[in-house]
């Protein structure tokens, strides 16, 4: 019979699963609400809730993410990609190089910024004559980064989170921390096997979806309407607001072209002049209604992408997972004033969303087509809400030594940690101090680069694990869900752990999956007498190697919208890769542990 406290913990677990799956609220907020509920119920003490913030591994995760962001901003990764992809001619050649380079780099760099940097190369290469659209390459890009990230302790935050949970249980359970390359016994063979699989099957299994960014440049009249004020128009001398051009049905004024210069964003008090060209975006099918209501306007065609000040700076971006823009309408987010960019179209699941642009509620994975102003790059430099995929204006180059220093420093920190000469926390901290001293990064970069949501999720996950262990919930789950697999021996138990983790990680955030299952797996190891590290690694690989859906891993969500994919596309190419990964993981770990 379950105790009252156990029922409360089960209720909190159910709430977390439903909230994450249905995206009822921010993942960090979901965990905070759940864990605070356990605190109010008296199941967790304040010190148990706060203990996770003192975990060294959380600090290591934050530091590595900060260094990764600095590396991305310096442009050294762009230079590496330039070197390797410049001579690629065929689809297979580009795909092979991409999987090899991305998986190799993501073993030591955070895969999210790596994929963000690589995406423009995919788009630019796909523009060549006779080449496939980006949809043939974006899922392989995400999967290559996942394959590489699983090969080392620091390759993905999921591995570091599990290691932080191990350190919490180190004294009680007698566990030891995981080594830097303990993941390589499974990860490296899977980089080779998984990379070969992607090169062979991607062209056959992935769809040839439309490239909306290229389509926008070629068919702007499907997205934009240009009108000129007629001679003697009554609107001349009136402000945009007075003319009633602020709240049009289905359209909004994104730019005014005046005497060879572009004015954007358009201020409501801007006075209209004779011969101004007004550029509208949104539902262009309503142009007839616009011209009927405003007879002072006449349609014209102008060169929108010239090199002068009137030329449009076109940007394609994707809403990040855990973005503050999620569930806000474009109007509520004040997108134009916040980023100096107007949203021209929103694409979701490969289809353009119709209706009034300002009323569209944004979701993670949505692709935004933007007309950006001069200040766009400065305003989005510290942005974590969306990733820029393609743009017609290139960012300025960084000095070579500033680009190389953080990458060389990171490699040195990893080597020193691997040789057990300097702890990883200390070596990466010194590296950040050096980057600040030589002004490769600024204090603003450091503060702005901290992923507070991730820190909260990890700390609250540790507290949830304590509650599951204290109340016996972990033991109940292990006994009823995974212990029956014992009839198939240790191999059956490992397959059960892998399968449950992979499915749960595909339905919700994979970090949440390991948070829920870690105490269960630890209890299962005690009940079966199996080596706990072997089962923990099995669970970790299943969570980190997330190929079945776009939901469980951030890089999958990043490519979901730009590729125009459906869940079916991920499942079709991801299921065989998941089975392959499970086979290698169970086989190798059963021998090692």
Question: What this model shows, in words?
Answer:
Its main location: membrane. Keywords: Membrane, Repeat, Transmembrane, Transmembrane helix, Transport. Pfam families: CitMHS, TrkA_C. The chain is built from 24 helices and ten strands. 51% of the residues are buried. The chain has helices at residues 4-22, 27-40, 46-50, 56-74, 76-85, 91-106, 111-126, 138-149, 157-173, 184-205, 212-218, 287-293, 335-339, 376-379, 400-418, 424-437, 443-449, 452-470, 473-482, 489-507, 510-528, 532-544, 554-560, 567-592, and strands spanning 224-229, 251-258, 261-263, 277-282, 297-299, 313-319, 341-348, 351-352, 367-372, 386-391. The radius of gyration is 26 Å and the shape is globular. The protein is α+β, with helices and mostly antiparallel strands and 593 residues long. Helix 4 runs antiparallel to helix 15 and helix 10 packs antiparallel against helix 24. Strand 2 and strand 3 (261-263) form a beta hairpin. It has a five-stranded antiparallel sheet with strand order 3-2-4-1-5, with helices on one face. A five-stranded antiparallel sheet has the order 8-7-9-6-10. Helix content is 55%, strand content 9%.
């Amino acid at each position: 019979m379950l105790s009252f406290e156990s029922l409360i913990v089960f209720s909190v677990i159910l709430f977390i699963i439903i909230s994450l799956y249905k995206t009822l609220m921010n993942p960090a907020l979901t965990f905070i609400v759940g864990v605070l509920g356990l605190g109010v119920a008296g199941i967790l003490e304040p010190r148990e809730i706060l203990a996770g913030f003192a975990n060294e591994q959380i600090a290591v995760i934050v530091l590595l993410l900060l260094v990764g962001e600095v590396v991305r901003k310096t442009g050294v990764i762009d230079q590496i990609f330039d070197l390797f992809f410049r001579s690629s001619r065929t689809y297979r050649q580009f795909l092979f190089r991409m999987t090899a380079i991305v998986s190799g780099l993501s073993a030591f760099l955070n895969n999210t910024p790596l994929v963000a940097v690589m995406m423009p190369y995919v788009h630019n290469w796909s523009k060549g004559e006779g080449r496939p659209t980006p949809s043939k390459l974006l899922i392989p890009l995400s999967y290559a980064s996942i394959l590489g990230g699983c090969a080392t302790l620091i390759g993905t935050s999921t591995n570091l989170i599990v290691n932080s949970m191990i350190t919490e249980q180190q004294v009680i359970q007698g566990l030891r921390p995981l080594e830097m390359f303990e993941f390589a016994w499974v990860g490296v063979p899977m980089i080779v096997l998984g990379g070969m699989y992607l090169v062979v099957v991607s062209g056959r299994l992935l769809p040839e979806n439309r490239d909306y960014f290229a389509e926008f440049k070629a068919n702007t009249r499907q997205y934009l309407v240009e009108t000129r004020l007629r001679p003697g128009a009554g609107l001349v001398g009136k402000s945009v607001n007075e003319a009633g051009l602020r709240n049009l049905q289905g359209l909004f004024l994104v730019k005014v072209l005046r005497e060879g210069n572009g004015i954007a964003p358009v201020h409501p008090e801007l006075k209209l002049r004779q011969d101004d060209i007004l550029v509208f975006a949104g539902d262009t099918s309503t142009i007839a209604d616009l011209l009927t209501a405003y007879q002072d306007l006449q349609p014209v065609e102008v060169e929108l992408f010239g090199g002068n000040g009137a030329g449009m700076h076109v940007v394609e971006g994707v809403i990040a997972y855990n973005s503050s823009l999620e569930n806000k309408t474009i109007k509520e987010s004040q997108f134009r004033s916040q980023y100096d960019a107007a949203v021209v179209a929103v694409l979701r699941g490969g289809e353009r969303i119709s209706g009034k642009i300002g009323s569209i509620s944004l979701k993670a994975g949505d692709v935004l087509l933007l007309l950006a102003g001069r200040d766009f790059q400065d305003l989005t430099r510290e942005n974590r809400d969306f990733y820029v995929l393609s743009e017609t204006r290139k960012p300025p180059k960084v000095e070579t030594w500033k680009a190389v220093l953080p990458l060389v420093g990171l490699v040195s920190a990893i080597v020193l940690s691997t040789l057990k000469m300097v702890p990883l926390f200390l070596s990466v901290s010194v590296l950040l101090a050096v980057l600040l001293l030589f002004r490769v990064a600024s204090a603003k970069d450091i503060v702005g680069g901290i992923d507070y949501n991730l820190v909260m999720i990890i700390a609250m996950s540790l507290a949830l694990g304590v509650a599951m262990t204290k109340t016996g919930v972990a033991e109940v789950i292990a006994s009823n869900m995974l212990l029956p697999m014992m009839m198939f021996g240790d191999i059956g138990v490992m397959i059960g752990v892998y399968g449950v983790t992979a499915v749960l990680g595909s339905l919700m955030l994979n970090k949440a999956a390991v948070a829920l299952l870690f105490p269960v797996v630890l209890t299962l190891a005690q009940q079966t007498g199996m080596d706990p590290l072997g089962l923990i690694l099995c669970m970790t690989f299943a969570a980190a190697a997330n190929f079945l859906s776009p939901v469980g891993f951030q890089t999958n969500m990043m490519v979901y919208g730009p590729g125009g994919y459906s869940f079916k596309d991920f499942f079709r190419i991801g299921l065989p890769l998941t089975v392959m990964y499970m086979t290698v993981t169970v086989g190798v770990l059963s021998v090692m542990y």
